[in-house]
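C-alpha cells for chain A. Residues wanted.
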C-alpha cells in the first residue's frame, strides 16, 4: 500500500538514522515492501543483516521498539519472523477515503506530460480483421486510455499493412472483377485468398501482378486509384470493428506502410553513411554483434532485398525517424505479439547504432501471448481458419443478450440491447485485459460471460447493483460526497483498503504496460464490496452510519466505473 509507505517513511527515516542505517539502505528496505497476510505493508529486514551484522528478527524488534508510539493514528506495527508489519489504522483510512470522495480523479495524480506514440492494432488491407488482431487492439487501446488519464499526450498509430508486393496481385484481381466495382462490393472474406490462388495457379496473372507492383511503386495514377479503392473498402471494415468494440482509433490515426514508402531510400542512405550496411547475396543488410541464427552464423537484419524491395525493418526504422523528427515523441510503445521480440530488439539496436535514437529515447516492445481455444491450440474457426473478429463480437453480444433476457426480463427492448452490448463486448475485452499480457489465455464463452469470478459481468453487475441502491430512495449522489466516512465494521475496513489501492494499481499498470494490474485491483474492489454489502446494512442503517456507507457505495461505484472506462469497458447503471 503505497499511501501507507509514504506515511511511515519519515518516521522510519528518523529511527533508521538512530540505529546507524544509511538512507540508501532503508530506502531499499521500503522499495522491497510487500503485502502480507498479516498486514497492509510488510518490510523484510533481511537486507539490513549485513549492514548491522544482526539477525533480521533482532533488527525488526529494535526498529519496532524505537518507533514506539510515533505511528499512532496511522497504523499498528508488529515484528514477525524478521518482518516489520504495518496495518493501517481505520481513522487513517477514513482520511484517505475522504480525499478520494471529494476528488473527481479519485486521487490519481497526473505525471509530467510526455508525447507517447502507441503502435497498435495493425490489420492488413484487403483482409478481414481476425482474432489475431484482438490482443494488440484491446491492450493498445487500454494503454492509450490509461496513459492519457495520467496526463500524457498519446499519439495512437495504426500501422496497417497497405503497401508491398502482394498489392500487385490484389489490384490485378480487382481489375479482373471489373473496374466499375464499388469499394463496398469487395468481399473481404474471399478477396485475398482468391487473388493468392490465382497468382499461384496462373503464370500470366502472376506476371501481370509483378508488373503492377512496379507501376504502383512508380505512383502510376490509375494503379494508385485502384490501390486506394482497396484501402477505402478495408477502412469501412476496420471502422465497423472499432466502433463495435469501442476502440479509440480513427482514420486520423492511420500510419500505414505507404506513409513511409518515400522515406525508405533515406534510411538506406543514412545507414550507409555511418558504415553499418553490408552486402549479402545482393541484399543490403546490417550485422549486429551477438546475433546468430540457428546454425550459429551471423544473423543479418535485411534492409533492402536483392531485387531492390524493402523489408519490415526498413519501414520500422523510417517510423522511428518520423516519430522523433515530425511527431516530436521520444517514447514509443509497440503493442505487437511476442513472436516479434527478436525483430524489434534488432531494429532498436540498429536505430541506436545509427544515431537515429539517443539514450533519451524509450522504444519499448510490449509483447503479448496467444488467444487459445479450449483444445489447447491457437483459437481457430470450425474450418481451421482464422476467426473473424467481427463475427466474434457479434456472437458475444448475442450470447450476452440471451443471458440478460433471462436475468433481467423487466428491461425494455432498447435497454436490453444496450446492456447486452456492454456485457458482450466487455466480456471479450476483460478476458484479455485481466490476463498478464505475457501469457497465453484460453477463450471460453461460459467463463468470460459468467457473473461469478474475475469477469467483466461480475464487475459490471457490482456497479449496477450500487446504482440501484441510490435509485431506490432517489438519493442525490453529489450530496453524499459531503458525508463523513466512519469505518467500524471489518468489512468496511476491508473495502476501504481495496479502494485506496486504486491509484497505485493504475500507476503500476501504466509503468509496466500491464492492464491486468488495474483489472486485478478492480476485481478486488468488487469482491470487497460484495462482502461488505452482504453483512452491512446500508439504507436501513442509523443515520450517520447510513450516510457513511452510502459514501462508501458511491466511491466504490465511481472507482469501478473509472477503472473499467480506462480499460475501454462500459458500466451499465441497470442490469
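Reply:
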Amino acid at each position: 500500500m503505497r499511501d501507507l509507505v509514504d506515511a511511515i517513511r519519515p518516521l522510519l527515516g528518523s529511527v533508521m538514522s538512530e540505529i546507524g542505517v544509511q538512507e540508501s539502505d532503508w530506502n531499499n528496505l521500503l522499495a522491497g515492501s510487500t503485502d502480507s497476510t498479516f498486514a497492509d505493508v510488510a518490510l523484510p529486514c533481511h537486507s539490513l543483516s549485513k549492514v548491522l551484522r544482526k539477525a533480521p528478527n533482532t533488527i525488526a524488534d529494535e526498529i519496532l521498539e524505537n518507533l514506539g508510539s510515533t505511528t499512532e493514528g496511522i497504523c499498528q506495527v508488529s515484528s514477525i519472523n524478521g518482518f516489520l508489519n504495518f496495518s493501517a489504522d481505520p481513522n487513517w483510512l477514513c482520511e484517505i477515503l475522504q480525499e478520494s470522495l471529494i476528488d473527481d480523479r479519485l486521487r490519481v495524480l497526473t505525471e509530467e506530460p510526455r508525447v507517447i506514440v502507441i503502435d497498435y492494432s495493425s490489420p492488413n488491407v484487403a483482409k478481414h480483421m481476425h482474432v489475431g488482431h484482438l490482443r494488440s487492439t484491446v491492450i493498445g487501446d487500454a494503454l492509450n486510455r490509461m496513459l492519457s488519464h495520467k496526463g500524457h499526450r498519446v499519439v495512437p498509430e495504426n500501422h496497417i499493412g497497405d503497401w508491398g508486393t502482394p498489392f500487385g496481385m490484389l489490384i490485378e484481381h480487382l481489375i479482373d472483377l471489373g473496374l466499375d466495382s464499388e469499394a463496398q462490393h469487395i468481399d473481404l472474406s474471399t478477396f485475398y485468398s482468391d487473388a493468392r490462388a490465382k497468382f499461384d495457379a496462373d503464370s500470366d496473372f502472376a506476371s501481370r501482378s509483378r508488373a503492377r507492383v512496379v507501376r504502383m511503386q512508380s505512383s502510376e495514377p490509375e494503379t494508385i486509384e485502384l490501390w486506394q479503392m482497396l484501402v477505402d473498402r478495408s477502412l469501412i471494415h476496420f471502422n465497423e470493428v472499432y466502433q463495435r468494440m469501442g476502440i479509440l482509433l480513427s482514420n486520423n490515426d492511420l500510419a500505414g506502410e505507404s506513409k513511409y514508402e518515400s522515406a525508405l531510400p533515406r534510411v538506406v542512405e543514412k545507414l550507409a553513411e555511418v558504415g553499418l550496411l553490408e552486402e549479402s547475396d545482393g541484399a543490403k543488410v546490417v550485422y549486429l554483434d551477438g546475433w546468430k541464427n540457428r546454425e550459429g552464423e551471423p544473423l543479418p537484419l535485411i534492409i533492402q532485398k536483392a531485387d531492390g524491395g524493402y523489408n519490415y525493418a526498413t519501414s520500422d526504422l523510417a517510423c522511428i525517424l518520423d516519430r522523433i523528427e515530425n511527431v516530436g515523441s521520444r517514447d514509443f510503445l509497440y503493442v505487437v505479439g511476442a513472436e516479434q521480440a527478436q525483430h524489434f530488439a534488432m531494429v532498436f539496436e540498429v536505430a541506436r547504432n545509427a544515431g537515429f535514437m539517443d539514450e533519451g529515447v524509450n522504444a519499448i516492445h510490449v509483447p503479448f501471448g496467444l488467444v487459445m481455444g479450449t483444445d489447447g491450440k491457437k483459437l481457430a474457426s470450425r474450418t481451421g481458419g482464422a476467426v473473424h473478429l467481427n463475427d466474434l463480437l457479434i456472437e458475444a453480444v448475442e450470447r450476452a443478450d440471451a443471458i440478460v433476457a433471462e436475468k433481467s426480463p423487466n428491461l425494455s427492448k432498447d435497454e436490453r440491447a444496450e446492456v447486452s452490448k456492454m456485457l458482450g463486448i466487455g466480456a471479450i475485452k476483460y478476458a484479455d485485459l485481466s490476463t498478464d499480457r505475457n501469457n497465453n489465455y484460453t477463450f471460453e464463452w461460459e467463463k468470460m460471460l459468467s457473473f461469478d469470478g474475475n469477469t467483466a459481468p461480475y464487475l459490471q453487475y457490482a456497479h449496477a447493483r450500487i446504482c440501484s441502491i441510490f435509485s431506490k430512495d432517489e438519493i442525490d449522489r453529489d450530496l453524499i460526497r459531503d458525508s463523513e466516512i466512519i469505518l467500524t465494521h471489518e468489512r468496511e475496513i476491508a473495502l476501504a483498503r481495496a479502494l485506496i489501492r486504486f491509484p497505485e494499481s493504475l500507476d503500476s499498470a501504466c509503468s509496466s504496460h500491464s492492464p491486468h494490474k488495474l483489472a486485478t485491483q478492480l476485481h478486488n474492489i468488487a469482491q470487497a464490496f460484495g462482502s461488505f454489502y452482504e453483512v452491512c446494512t446500508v439504507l436501513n442503517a442509523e443515520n450517520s452510519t447510513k450516510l457513511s456507507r452510502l459514501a462508501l457505495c458511491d466511491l466504490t461505484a465511481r472507482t469501478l466505473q473509472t477503472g473499467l472506462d480506462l480499460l475501454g469497458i462500459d458500466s451499465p447503471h441497470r442490469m
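The longest strand covers residues 283-292. The CA atoms of residues 68 and 82 lie 18 Å apart.
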